[in-house]
Amino acid sequence: MIIFSSVLKNDWEDSDCVCYALEGLYSVMNDEISEQVEPHELVNIPTDLGVQFTEMYMKNTENYQTLLSLLDAPESFIRRNAMRLLTVLSINRLKDTQNALLQCRTGVSKLVDILSDTHEVLRNDVILLLTELTKANANIQKIVAFENAFDWLLKIIYSEGLCDGSVVVEDCLRLLFQLLDGNPSNQVLFAEGNFIQRLSLLFDLHSTESTQSHLWSAQKVVNAEVAMQVVQTLVAPCNKAQLTRNCQNVIYDCGLLEKLCNIVMISGVPADVLTKSIYALADSIRGCPRNQEYLANLVTPSEPPQSAVNVLLVSMLNKHQSVVVRVAALYCFQCYLASNHQGQNGIVMTLLPKPNDVPQLGVSAGQLLCGGLFSSDSSAWFSSIALLHCIHDNVQLKKELLRVHLSPNEGALPVTLFHQCFIWQQQCNRFQTRMGLLQLLCTWFTNCSEAIRCFLNPSSGTGDDQTESVNRGSYLWTLIAEACAVDNDENEALVHGLTTLLVCICVIYNPGNVNGFERSTLYNALEKRIGIDMILERLSQISKAESFITASKKPQISVQSTDDLIFDYTFTRLFKRLEYEVMHTFQLDSSINGVKNCTSFSDNHQNSKPVDPTITTISKQYDEKLARQENEITMLRNRISVLESQLNTCRSTINSNTPTDAKQNNVVNEDQLQKLTITDNVTIQNLEQKCLMLEKERDNLRGEHEDLLLLLNDQDVKIMKLCKLVRELGGLVS
Questions:
Q1: Are strands 299-300 and 306-307 parallel, antiparallel or unpaired?
Q2: Were both Cys, which of 71, 258, 327, 448 would link to 398 (CB 3.0–4.6 Å)?
Q3: What is the pTM of this model?
């Protein structure tokens, strides 16, 4: 290796020697070549021998600079061998290679310039090399984007035939995705540089014949999937809200939203492409009123015509459709309803009775949901979660939904949707169906005392007060009996856990206007029948379940089969809040009469004795530390904004110059600008990391602060119990 390195440094004028040296180093460091050798020829040879040689080679930083200098060689075969070797170095020792590249002033610029090379082999090789070098490195990603890589990559995609192109299109799209994923500054540059408009050309499907699945080659399917991923990363829920909103507006303005809708609505699209298209469409409309309204008003050119929302629901409830497409359709429906009270109202209104003179045009969204809600297959889970999102964070619609009546059988008297959901939840033996309905009922009960009143005192519909009196509380006692049952497996534990939560919600949001079922009465019944410790244990089992943890990680549902359909992401967030309320509400407080009552944590704390001064001091210190960290985080964010604005100013200044001036400035200030860019990028990254660390520490301190308050509350409860015991024994308590 030393000899090869010496040849590259000293004999660079001899092109043949340089080429042989590069090939030799490539063979030495490439472990894939050793895999092609017979196993008996590799006795006592480690499998990572190439990685070890790479580590030895990278110890001398001059070696990497020498390789980069060879990219300027006039011979194309030398440049290609140099890039192949750089690619192997990146695969074997990525971090070291990235650091060495950042230390070379014009290293990234040389690589990006090769994207415009007339030799397609060199161009294709550098795409693969940049894909390796930009992995998990925001600084290199920003520099590559700043060097106008977006423009060159899109030009290559056009020249290769867009989605109908070869694997080169896939490589370009994967590099685009990597440059944009989780990189806000690159996303801003992509949106403001009119690159979304140019990207939209990949989604043009001009004729119905071109959309037939048998005409989609395997490569075209992959190209379309990666193109959808690029759109998704621009509007991902984890991005900054303002950045996502800007990208959503651009997607609407350039017609990309219309093209995504066309792909979703037409027939013949392969399932994989359809799934990615639905997800891209979903994230493009999430929380954006204008885009949501566009989807709501979209009507498919079918016979009879159907609204786009109904098409999504039909796909979601079609049991013959693949589960990944059904899950994607549910996610798109959820995104349509996200922060969209008008959309929620429109769906719920289709469930309410209409005057006889109002004509019924086709099957409504409400009819589709009700039809699936009481089915015997997985459609019941999908309908339950969809209906959950129709009333999520909307108390008025929860009350309106109580007016919905159904006819379970032909000729039978109509019953309320509320009543039918509870009965079906009890009668159905399918685990997924019960979980979906319980999540719907828990969401329905939360913050809706009217629903709890109907639950505690269900109306028979006959107006007979005696019948109502007999039925009063029957639903509640059924749930309590089920919550007390023994868990035979994990599935039953989850069902019993949600049943317990539903009963606890009846205590927390109790309306107090049902005789015999007041808040304190229900609390005493739960303590006697289930036990407070068992209630908390039931809820803890849910939050620790693997299915719950998986669902709570991201809004998109990741499943392989319908058996994996258990929890919804939005419900997991609601559950965490309800679990917190149950833990802080179910505290025992002894009143003057000695009757146990259910009070909130804040009430318990306010009625307790004066706290220990030491605890007060510690609590005050935590508050002061949190305030200091909040100020420091604010200062760091302001500093990041200033640096980003300075960087954007430099970019605008360069773009505003004439070509001649820009060329002269680049010759004079190239080194200085490159150093400034790298320094600013490193500074921004360090500040962002420090900001994240401080935010994490702040969250930890808040958790510790809450734990201290919980311990303080427990201490107060114990003191009050002991005082009561002392009084009962005849003692005096000061």
A1: antiparallel
A2: 448
A3: 0.78
